[in-house]
Amino acid sequence: MKKRAAFTLIECVAALLVTTIVIILAGMTISSLRSVTRQSLDQPLDWIICLQELESPRHAYALVSVRDNTVVLRDQHTDRLYELCAQKRLYLRAQKDGGYMPVFSGIHDQKTVFRQLDQQRVYIKVERTNGEVLTGYLCFRKDS
Q1: Where do transmembrane segments lie in this chain (predicted)?
Q2: Res 41: pLDDT
Q3: Are strands 61-67 and 70-75 parallel, antiparallel or unpaired?
């Protein structure tokens, strides 16, 4: 009787075990990469960046007025008027020329509060759709 070269049962089980471990590790790696690369606006850092961008010297926004759910700002470089509005997200809307730019998303527009503190500062409070309440103080340039 001739001996044939073949896999034994132990070798087959070992190969299946190694393959299973590789598949499990690959799945865990892919899911962790997905969660890292997914844009997450639930982090407080995003709120801080939003506030810093509104106060940025690049834009040179000056506070004109605060109404209901709107803050009116003047860009001192271009002398254009913008409105900071809240409707499911905070966004800047150009008053005359049209167009808008989203600034922060995932908020309840009915639960957004803008309160003018003095000629330059505005208190802002928003409630996220996940229930988180975020507050901040914006300090704009003096309107000339």
Answers
A1: 6-30
A2: 46
A3: antiparallel
